[in-house]
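ERR on first pass: missing label on line 2. Operator R.T. fixed the label and resubmitted. Corrected input:
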Amino acid sequence: MYTIYIFISLLVSVSSSARGSELDYDGWLQLRLWHAFNDESEPIFVERGNVTVSSVRSGASVVGQNGLLQPHINQLKTLAKHDGKYRLKAVARTSLGNEITFLTSLPACYLLGSDLEDVITIWLDSAAEPIAVSISSPGPCSTENPFTNMWTTNVVVKYPDGGPVPDTATYIQKLEREREARERGEAKDNRSFLARYWMYIVPALIFVVLSSATNPEAGGAGGSSQRQ
Amino acid sequence: MAPFVRSFRGNIHRFLIDVQILQYLIILVGLFNLSLCLYEDQVGKFDWKQNYVGKIKFASFDTVSAAKKIIVATEENVIAALNLKSGQILWRRVLEKGYGGRIRALGGVTDGDLVSVSGGVPAIVRAWDLATGHILHEWPIAEQNHDRRFSPFISFSTLGLYSANRIKDVKWHIKDGTLHHILPIYNSAVEVTSYDSKTGDKLKTRRVSAPFITQETECVLAAPYLACLKGDSSLAVLLLVHLFDTHSQPQSVTINTIFGAGAQGPYHLESVLGEEPIISISADNNQRKRILLVGEVPVPIQRDIVGDAALYVVSVDNEKILLETTYKNGAKIVASELLTSKPMPNISTSVTHNSLLSPTIIASVCPRQTKGVTCRHLLASEDHSVALLQHNKLIWAREEALANIVAVEIIELPMSDRDQEIETEFDQKERDVLSMMFRRVGSQLKQAKTFLQSILSLTPQQSNQRMDLVRDKFGLHKMIVLVTSAGKLYGIETRKGEIIWQLRVRGIRGFSKRSDAIILYVQRGSRHFPYPPQCALLAEDKVCIIIIYYHQFDQTGEGIVYTFNPITGQPLDGLVKLGYRIKQSMLLHVTTDDFLRGILIFDIRDKVHVYPKGATAIAASIAKNTYIFTADQTTGILSGYSLSYSTSQELISHKVWELLLSPKNQRITHVVSKNPIERVHSQGRVLSDRSVLYKYINPNLVTIVTEGVGHTHKNTLNLYLLDVVSGAMIFSIMHKRVRGPVHVVHSENWIVYSYFNEKSRRTEIASLELYEGKIQSNTTVFSSLATTKLPIVERQAFIFPAAIESMRETITEKGITSKHIIVALANGGILELPWMMVDPRRPINPEVREEGVIPYMPEIPIHMDAIINYNQSVFRVSGIHTSPSGLESTCLVFVHGLENYNCACNTMFTDLFYTRVAPSKTFDVLKEDFDYYLIVIVLAALLISSYITKKLASQKAQKQAWK
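pass 2 clean. output:
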């Protein structure tokens, strides 16, 4: 009755940005998954499968899990009808031998809507220890029968980005460049004094002329100089 | 052309003068531009500042100087002089923060010079000028003792528990210009080193043999003796060592000679304050105590004193008088002659005053005057307030509890009586036509009556509230509700900073797990007349502490709720004991029929309760979409709960997510969510190519900051962004080689945090900004469960050229005004930093300029005109509270200190400062000096002229028609 299906999904690596990985350690990680479909506050967990991340740095992983049985799908449908939550318990075993339990959930209708497609995201801290496992599904929300009873699971491993640092080097370079440009600009600028500063001289001249025109004394002086 | 040139030449000297005038003009114009910030007459117009000294530790009357004053040293590391008549601060000196500035001893006031010893390793001795508070001398006791193990002077790095205990053992004695450093050496002797208190010269070192002193020995100083209690309950012996006589042998007094037979332990030793060497020993579980006069022959006084009486010995005309202070609905001071126990009713007093609560005499002086003996007592109360008592009369009281604020809310004032009547007239409740009409006529008659009264200048009836405590037009006048760590509540109005009411809640304490935080919720604002505004306080029960003390099992702090009216300070439901311990709480966003917002309380057994009970149905109706999250600092577990299985009678929680920030690697230091009243006005940001970058505005996003622990992860800082509804981690970032103090501001779609960079040895500010991208996932409402796409995170770091004490963002009513960050600096300034300066999208190489984006500069400059408290420095700020006003442009800012540490003794000193800021300038208010007359005249003239010209035009048209 049980058709065992092993679904292998190759993994997406994260952040191609220049900052790159800050992870100092590499190791493996094993997740054992249990899930609950019951529509009650206390979950009844049944085994779902397991995920093995062979290298946390590259994020390469192998997913092994059974397909859903019809009673489980029916349970999931009732859960979705009541707007309930599908709960997933993940027990992580790290290469250091630590065992950590995580709990995550998502509205059941998203799982049905996406035909049992989900993404399990494993977040690591700077010591490559898992700190969070969360499940998400692209949706949309639906209460219909899924096309398949097989999981389509993607596993994503995320680790912290390196924090930003004040970018002094680029700024100093920029200042240098600007200074050089200015120096070059000054060397090139061999126009005459008047040609360069006419925009300042003309208003000043107008000011002088105007003030002498309004001041009768100045006008007289101007006249006398004219007579010479 | 030529004549013109000649005239120009002739005018050259005039031109030079003109240029000079022009220069002056330019400078003058420049000055006008600079002085746009604050005019001198505006100082104190929108802001106020109050200074406090904190909980009194040592005090001394200065009767030597010409101006009589009181010198106090406080738990908040402050030395200050208070005016004897008014209690005002004459001068105040703030010492180093925390451990390094803790005041160990104060003395020498009677000799006319004030000497203080502060800090631990090295201790710093300072001599102060009594009149001005200037430091006259300062020197450290930093010498290394030959035996390092017994010395308290161990460098900070090796300062373990052991040496910390030793510092506690060190006693200081200041007498006649000499400072004695008294250090017990276990199983051997007491080492007394004397220094000249002014120069720091070492005068003498003696060793007085005291082989009985061990680590457990309880010793007190009753100069010149050191009194130690040796042995446990039944056969306890009191040993007295003369500190300045190396040849003397320790004297011993058995407990039986003091108490007689039949006294029960445990015994507790205390030195009685005052000038005389007297100690008190309490017995029978602090039920009674007796005192012992220490001298060459110790004299026990054979009289029982009640255990909770505070003792002080004062001398009047060379006679020693014992003052016993007890408290029962009022303070009672009973004086008696020390040796004969003869009561002295003329010195005994009893006072009942609001600000006295279980007071103890800290300092007392009884000079003989012409009328007889008048005593002045400086009383320090349990709630940290200080009062001066003179002859049955309370001269002044200072509310020093305000130096320890744990929670703040700024609340709108209610409407005036007249507005309230109008409000009742048009209330929403359904009524039939006739009653509506009666009500209307009635209220209009009332209005007519008050109008007539005001015309006939009759005095209106006194209303139950103060006339000036009403809402103003722009909502700028508000009430600040403060909760202090001593369990005292204050209501302060914002205009002048006057204390309107104060309320003492006994038997509460802050949540011990959350560093003594007390939570304050505004359940109902002042807008819902006739219902009174209501605030609720969530805290732990203090009584249970005593239970643990006696029964030795953990039954700590069950939760309590205390509701009160924040405007009048009247208790509403009083103290309600919940009977369970609170883990998390939340204010519901829906109200009951009487506009009361319920409080959802989550207890440690994961059960959900609602306060008041009546709001359960309302809470259940929204339970489907109600989520609670908890974060445990010790276990590092973060969990989320949903209430979706709740029934209308009972709320049921179930866990929907759980994650672990392993305490082996990191320790949670901050959990910062957004301000729940915040509104985001613009959904996106317009780029230079006119496309829109949509903001990731997730109201459920919470910032979690952890600091690395252990050898390998020390000095790392992790920041996680977590959606607390779905439990999905959104983003994580890590800084290496940085350390705290970390300050985080989380608002809209950005996070700004500051930390200290160990590598570069500077404070840095990093900022993160979250965007959904060019397409918005849902234009109307954000759903944490439906959004699976991770946001784009922009990030940038800046150098900040000052140390930061606290940060907070401004908030306005509609969120249109741009955001500023209020940064409290260590130098006492409060900086208003525009968020634009820490925008992570500031481009390094600006090719195309975006609107409102300044090119990147690694350092954020501190402009002096952005310091909102100008010269009113506010030191050791640890909390900033912002609140919107009725004006969109204006945000109210309240700056205060806060007890940051778990240890109750390590309190912080504070000032209160209140002001208002306008981040985008006051665009919605006319200037104060706006010329109303001019605009009226201009308008009137325009109106008249248009009317006249219309007339004239019609006349002309008429004339033309006749032609």
